[in-house]
Design a protein that fits this description.
Layout: E1 3-8, H1 14-26, E2 30-35, H2 40-46, E3 52-55, H3 62-67, E4 73-76, H4 86-91, E5 95-98, H5 104-119, E6 135-139, H6 143-154, E7 158-162, H7 168-173, E8 177-178, H8 182-188, E9 191-194, H9 208-211, E10 219-222, H10 231-240, E11 245-248, H11 255-261, E12 266-268, H12 278-298
Parallel strand pairs: 1-2, 1-3, 3-4, 4-5, 6-7, 6-9, 7-8, 9-10, 10-11, 11-12
Bound molecules: 3-phosphoglyceric acid.
């Protein structure tokens, strides 16, 4: 009997797990669960006889792949797969997949939750500002960017986007103004929402040069990855500019500096929360389970990321 291991340091909602179990057991497979593990060894022990894995931001390193001798497929229930060692998976003939778009609306809603909180001065009783009429720039117009644009339009914002991989026509059909360069996006928009993946090219790419282009009252919204931010540059810029604010779904490495220097101008979720809704857990978890069954039963490799 095939064994599917759900290994999630940050567990899915119970309602999602029940549905995942239904799909896995309905296919005649066995479901094993490892949640909230505290040491890498627990993961190494759990993967030994797993034929398939469903993970979230869990680190699937070369060591994990080597320990998972029976593994044929790992599905990251989510969008960003920078936590998977794709080279190790390929070398071991393990198919790696993600579930693009499944948790995108949840992430987009969190971006606005954090924005509203900061423009209302953390609800401290003083007069804040509104989002209506302001310009928002979407840096990378993928699934999350699409939902950010939709919500922003509901708020009455002007929406711009930069993404060299998405056609201008697609953006314009969504009522989004495409801009030709990343610099133009930052120069134009008081609010910039990041949706780029963490890759060797994007790491530390959100730097002083780019951020200093942003207009007065700037706010950077990061529901992407902390690695894409040049954290020292961000601290430098916020020290120079008292108008600059930063909200992030990921605590930066230097969070104490923010606490010491920038009270009221930043917010960080204590744990990555963008995809932490029942709906997103169901969407991404169920998609992952279905992809595993389709892979074993029909050889379906749609959403494979280590081609
Ligand atoms: C993603 O890449 O899908 C999001 O960052 C969500 O990550 P999580 O599943 O660890 O919450």
């Amino acid at each position: 009997m095939k064994k599917v291991l759900v290994a999630t340091d940050k567990p899915f909602a119970k309602i999602a797990l029940d549905q995942i179990r239904g799909i896995v057991e309905g296919a005649g497979y066995q479901l094993a669960l490892l949640e909230k593990y505290t040491t890498p060894q627990q993961l190494l022990d759990a993967v030994v006889d797993a034929n398939a894995m469903i993970v979230r931001s869990d680190l699937i390193t070369q060591e994990v792949v080597a320990a998972a001798k029976e593994l044929k497929i790992v599905v990251r229930a989510g969008a960003g797969y920078d936590n998977l060692d794709l080279a190790a998976c390929s070398a071991a003939n393990v198919v790696a997949m993600n579930t693009p778009g499944q948790n995108a609306n949840a992430v987009a809603e969190l971006a606005f939750g954090m924005m509203v909180m900061l423009v209302r001065n953390n609800y401290n009783g003083t007069s804040g500002t509104e989002l209506r009429g302001k310009k928002i720039g979407i840096h990378a117009y993928g699934n999350v960017g699409y939902y950010v644009a939709k919500i922003a339009k509901g708020f009455g914002m002007e929406v711009f986007a930069f993404d060299p991989f998405v056609s201008k026509e697609k953006m314009m059909a969504d009522g989004v103004t495409p801009v030709a360069t990343v610099e133009e996006l930052y120069k134009t928009c008081q609010f910039v929402s990041l949706h780029i993946p963490a890759t060797e090219t994007t790491k530390k790419s959100i730097n002083h040069g780019l951020l200093s282009l942003m207009p007065k009252g700037a706010m950077l919204i990061n529901t992407a990855r902390k690695e894409v931010i040049h954290e020292e540059d961000l601290v430098k810029l916020m020290s120079e500019r008292a108008d600059f604010r930063y909200v992030s779904d990921i605590e930066p490495g230097n969070k104490q500096e923010f606490a010491d220097k920038f009270a009221g101008r930043y917010f960080f979720t204590p744990k990555k929360m963008g995809a932490q809704t029942e709906e997103a857990n169901i969407n991404a978890g169920v998609a992952a389970a279905r992809q595993i069954v389709a892979f074993f039963e029909k050889g379906d490799e749609t959403f494979r990321v280590n081609k």
